[in-house]
Amino acid sequence: MAGQHVLEDVLNTLYSLPYPMPWPRLRDSVHLAYRARFQLDGGSGIQHRMWFEHADRDLRTVLDALADLGAIERDRGMADPVFFDVDVSGAGPELPADMPPELAELLGVAGAVADPAAQERARARREELTAGPVELIRLTELGTRAVRQRLLAVGRDAPVGR
User: Fold this and answer.
1) What is the DSSP letter of 154?
2) pTM of the model
3) Which positions ≥6 away from 85 have C-beta within 8 Å?
4) Are strands 21-22 and 109-110 parallel, antiparallel or unpaired?
5) Where are the beta strands (DSSP E) in 34-99?
6) What are phi and psi for residue 21, nearest 5 degrees?
7) Cα 87 from Cα 93, distance rounded (Å)
8) Among 52, 118, 133, 148, which is most exposed with the fewest C-beta within 10 angstroms?
9) Which residue pairs from 106-109 have beta carbons closer than 8 angstroms and sit at least 24 positions apart in sequence?
10) What DSSP string runs through 100-153?
11) What are residue 70's phi and psi, to 5 degrees?
12) Beta carbons of 138 and 31 less than 8 angstroms apart
């Protein structure tokens, strides 16, 4: 089931971050996962918008449940600059020539993706992240402990820290 894997990825991502995850970045990473999994093009057709609106609603429902259980905290504030797209169009780091465009977009590497729709998504995301306070999501101590135990149970490295 795709939703279960997305939830695991969301929790693993929150576990790995030293900063609260801004909603726009989390939302767009889930959208990107759906684009890659279902091979959706960058078009803005009404059907694609409906898929993403449903995905957003489902993700919000899961986040509500996790907040009710005490596994995550939600707050409002400015996104840390680490979540802004990185412009590598000039003298920035070299990217592997065979890096999939989805990975470059997920990493937030502006200029690395030739797809105009992806570049537009990056521009809109940066604008949304810098325009003012956004919803910020982080694991609580309880959530961190639970994700760490799940990662260790499946044999993954899960250092404690933050």
Assistant:
1) T
2) 0.75
3) 108, 109, 110, 122, 125, 126
4) unpaired
5) 72-77, 86-87
6) -80, 125
7) 9
8) 133
9) 106/29, 106/32, 108/25, 108/83, 108/84, 109/85
10) -HHHHHHTTEETS---HHHHHHHHHHHHHHHSS-EEEEEE-HHHHHHHHHHHHH
11) 85, 15
12) no
Domain boundaries, the chain: 2-153
Beta bridge partners of 21: 137
- Coil vs helix vs strand at 75: strand
Per-residue pLDDT of the chain (162 residues; tens, 9 = 90+): 345 667 888 898 899 888 999 999 999 888 877 777 766 555 557 777 787 888 899 999 999 999 999 999 999 999 998 888 655 454 444 555 565 555 555 555 555 556 677 778 778 888 999 999 999 999 999 999 999 999 999 998 888 755
